Amino acid sequence: MRRTLASATETFPIAGGFTISRGTKTEAAVVTCRITADGHAGWGECVPYARYGESLGSVLAEIAAATAAVESGASREELRQIMRAGAARNAVDCALWDLEAKRTGMPVASMINAAPPQPLTTAYTISLGEPEVMAAQTARHADRALLKVKVGTPDDATRIRAVRDAAPKSRIILDANEGWTGETLAYHLAVCAEAGISLIEQPLPAGRDEALAHVERVVPVCADESVHLTADLAALTDRYDAINIKLDKAGGLTEALDLRAEAARLNLKVMVGCMVGSSLAMAPAVLLAQGADFVDLDGPLLLARDREPGLRYVDSLVFPPDPSLWG
């Protein structure tokens, strides 16, 4: 079977900007990968992330370097050896899953999960800002079941209390994006417990998170930047209670499925998250997230426009993808 691979870039404006502790984005710049064979085409989308040394150019170069192997028939497992984990491999891996579904007529959902996929409750993200601004934004979404709030400053107590007051009934995930320190950790954990926060994501910098093993985690703590591959998990169980699986970090659905299984074996809770991208990037993650403890797949909701067709969102629910989009 001869394949043809093509890649391209696209840009989607973000509605109003998106701010975390590392800066503000006004657009989502993505790379798409299209693999054709036997008259069928499979698609994948990835989001290069500067935090991991990625750019549009570097991701396109990685895909180009793997083109010969993909076009000559390399499997998804073989690509895990050929390509490093990251955005480029994610786009190729997801395109191959989609191509297989199109060629065989078997949906990806049936390949990877025992039960038919169901709608999921997804978090909606509140950007980092001054406490009163965050409270106002939170109040506009206080009817949502699950919110994810960006923090990561030296003193986030006022922000935490402000968003909790603005959304008293919502479950809240806090994402510090590596912005706290060992010195402020216990204080912030106590404030989170007081506010009834459900989960704290990556409070300390990856590689400098040892303090988590020596503090009472009165609120469950989730690894994000500290985990990429299945092999990472065993070293994290003394300091984290959950992991955030993102396809762009893991390098595709193939690795992410192994991550999900190993997390279950190690009794770690699972969040399935995303970068800010279109529905094409979220679609495989919705299938991965079936049965997850936390779902954070609101990327398209943060965009001024999504691709068509896109995922269906109703209130806090995201529905499984239609095959015309992916899978």
Query: What is the second-level CATH architecture of the largest domain?
Result: Alpha-Beta Barrel
Secondary-structure class: alpha/beta
Q: Give me the CATH superfamily of the largest domain.
A: Enolase-like C-terminal domain
Strand order of the largest sheet: 5-6-7-8-9-10-11-12
First CA to last CA: what distance?
Answer: 20 Å
Q: Shape from CA axes? A: globular
> Mean pLDDT, rounded to whole units?
96
Beta strand %: 15-25%
Q: What number of domains?
A: 2
- CATH fold-type name of the largest domain: TIM Barrel
Radius of gyration: 19 Å
Fraction of residues in H or I helices: 25-40%
> What's the total helix number?
10
- Sketch the topology as an H/E string, one letter per element: EEEHHHHEEHEHEHEEEHHEHEEE
Main sheet properties:
8 strands, parallel
- Could you name the CATH class of the largest domain? Alpha Beta
How many beta-strand segments?
Answer: 14
Poorly predicted sequence stretches spanning 5 or more consecutive residues: none
Enzyme class: isomerase
Family: Belongs to the mandelate racemase/muconate lactonizing enzyme family.
Pfam families: MR_MLE_C (PF13378), MR_MLE_N (PF02746)
Domain Mandelate racemase/muconate lactonizing enzyme C-terminal: 131-222
